[in-house]
Amino acid sequence: MVSSKMASGKMASGKLEAAANHRQQFSSLADKRYFNYGGQGPMADSALAALTQAQQKIQTEGPFASGVNQWLQAQGHETRGAIAQALGTTPDTITLSENVTVGCNIPLWGLPWQSGDHILLGDCEHPGVVAAVAELSRRHGLEVSTCALADTLNGGDPVAVIEQGLRPNTRLVIISHVLWNTGQLLPLKEIVTLCHSHAPQTRVLVDAAQSVGVLPLDQPGWQLPETGVDFYAFTGHKWWCGPAGVGALYVRKAVLAETAPTFIGWRSVEVDGSGNPSGWQPDGRRFEVATSDYGLWAALQQALTVQANWGSSAARYERICALSERLWAGLRQLPQVACLLSETPPPSGLVSFQLIGRDGQPSPDLHSALVQQLESEKIYLRTLLSPNCVRGCVHYLTLEAEVDELIERVRLFMSQA
Question: Within a domain: residue 34?
Fold first, then answer.
């Protein structure tokens, strides 16, 4: 009879073997320890092959042939469908874009702004979004303010912080689902409910760069229509490990009509019998423009298939959290290392930490030196400026041994600093 301890050991061993076997589909991971999934994920070999095959098909059959055009239309439909399935929504709510920033700019420039309208930003938003809001404010005479969500990282109520920042004229609230610098997970449904109950015109735009591909958004309780969020912008090249250059925007059906297209092309419009524009597309396609790198769509579909073949989104999220807790717990044991999340394990794959210098303060010089030293050893992390820290990202693809090696290398670096 096999003891429960032996059976548990065999199960753990089986999971490790399965993870290692799955990783063999990612040749680019063979010679490195990769912790930069929040910047860009590596592509599976089959996703790279799908990209090449799609380009070859287009060129071989004729880039502007009618048969290729029909195939491309089908590819667009299938890609929106695959994305929608991963978010628990329907294809008509999905606009194909290039990246998160483009997705955010669609509602930023498309909402019916009036001079004096107010935008409320979280204080952990990406500089690309902050810059777009500043220019929008300059052109339209908008009021812009920020709320201190960073202060709630280790205690406090982000919903209450946002409530304090709302004004009678608040037109848009901009937050991230997972904060890109600290890894904090915001309670999206509660925030959206608050904003929608505040004023009829208040909308919520989410930068989802660090949540799509991490959170189980196709599961009950997580699905975008359930949250009520108005706009949810994301990319395929980070946690989905798809190709750079393709992303998407989710638009809640109720706000589709009030959001006007800014960039306009033949994919945005319907045409009449004479070929003249007769109106906008009735769904998310109205925000798409014209010619795209169509081979990217096939590659993203394959990237999603590879992840689904490993396991459900819930299983992947569970593994990501287990690995981030392993890294977080190990770093917390090291002298002169401080994790930004000081009380509880990370709720995502982002683990941000600071190296404390001899003066007792976080040391940007140590952060840069660590990242540079480890990259020379093919261990990849990155530094961030606000707050100044080092960020490591774990994925379901990450191996436990890699996490342990990173912890040991940080320990050794600090012992020699």
Answer: no
